[in-house]
Design a protein that fits this description.
The protein is α/β, with parallel strands linked by helices. It has two domains: 119 residues, Up-down Bundle (Four Helix Bundle (Hemerythrin (Met), subunit A)); 138 residues, Rossmann fold (3-Layer(aba) Sandwich). The protein is 53% helix and 9% strand. It contains ten helices and five strands, in the order ααααβαβαβαβαβαα. The protein has a five-stranded parallel β-sheet, sandwiched between helices. Strand 3, helix 7 and strand 4 form a beta-alpha-beta unit. It is globular, with a radius of gyration of 19 Å. 40% of the residues are buried.
Length: 285
């Protein structure tokens, strides 16, 4: 489906028909792990939405909803279920923009829609779910300022490669391991000049990528930085095993790029709204 088919999700309007989901980009090797992870998270999402609707621990439940939507989005993008990725992306914005009751209702509808998609893609009967057809609206790509990027990687060749990739769009700072990278992240916050994006390797000495990611997200939670306000973290790694991929998304990364990064990093930054697609295309030419 086109991205425009999901725009009304942000105002609790019509959803697109899940029968029209595009399965052409699904990565079969990741599919079993994706199904297990998504099914589990949908159960958690429903419970969190109902609790949020009840209003007893709204802040805690809202944080759970943000985390689950973010995780499902990332895992869907990595597995190639791009319509679910787009839905979750729009739902994240909608959740921040809507009133309390509308937001809870939207999340429950998102859960039902993804459930219908998963069932359908597995060849199961999903006819019990309501199908929606949304009108097409125009999406505008915003022009972005020059970004502050923190590149965390112990390999000097990889650091140089990322520097060359990002040079047209970013001012880059470099760290040789997770501990150094985390300290630079903290310095950015202390100086009130936070980074816009972090590229993060996994296999590193002192602190690996998973530990660094967890430390960054823990610090943000302690400072009240939640959801879309957090720094965008893109894993850039040679680790392609499902436990690394899905573990990273559950820990709060936005995207996962297998080295060599090349144009794949640009693509993920465009999806995250960090780069303008037209400018990236001009650089790639």
């Amino acid at each position: 489906m086109k991205k425009e088919a999901f725009t009304l999700v942000r105002t609790n309007g019509q959803f697109p028909d899940p029968a029209n989901v595009d399965s052409s980009m699904i990565i079969e090797d990741l599919w079993p792990a994706y199904i297990d992870s998504t099914t589990s998270q949908l159960t958690e999402l429903e419970a969190a939405a109902l609790a949020f609707e009840a209003g007893k621990n709204s802040e805690e439940d809202a944080a759970k909803i943000r985390r689950i939507l973010h995780s499902i989005k990332g895992e869907s993008g990595m597995c190639g279920v791009m319509d679910v990725y787009t839905l979750c992306h729009e739902a994240e914005f909608g959740f921040e923009e809507m009133g309390h009751s509308d937001a809870a209702d939207m999340v429950l509808r998102v859960k039902d829609w993804i459930d219908a998609v998963v069932r359908q893609l597995q060849g199961e009967d999903a006819s019990e779910f309501i199908h929606y057809q949304a009108p097409v609206q125009q999406l505008n790509l915003s022009v972005q300022k020059r970004l502050k990027a923190l590149v965390i990687d112990d390999d000097p060749v990889c650091r140089k490669g990322l520097e060359l990739l990002l040079a047209d769009f970013c001012e880059c700072t470099f760290a040789e391991n997770g501990k150094e990278g985390f300290q630079k992240f903290l310095e950015g916050l202390d100086e009130r000049k936070p980074y816009d994006v972090v590229t993060l390797d996994i296999q590193m000495p002192t602190m690996d990528g998973h530990q660094t990611l967890e430390a960054i997200r823990k610090t943000e939670r302690e400072l009240g930085i939640e959801g879309l306000d957090g720094i965008k973290i893109i894993m850039t790694t040679s680790q392609e095993e499902p436990e690394h991929v899905f573990g990273a998304f559950r820990e709060g990364c936005e995207a996962y790029v297998i080295k060599p990064a090349a144009g794949k990093l640009y693509d993920e930054m465009v999806k995250l709204g960090l780069l303008d697609a037209n400018k990236v295309y001009a650089v790639k030419k």
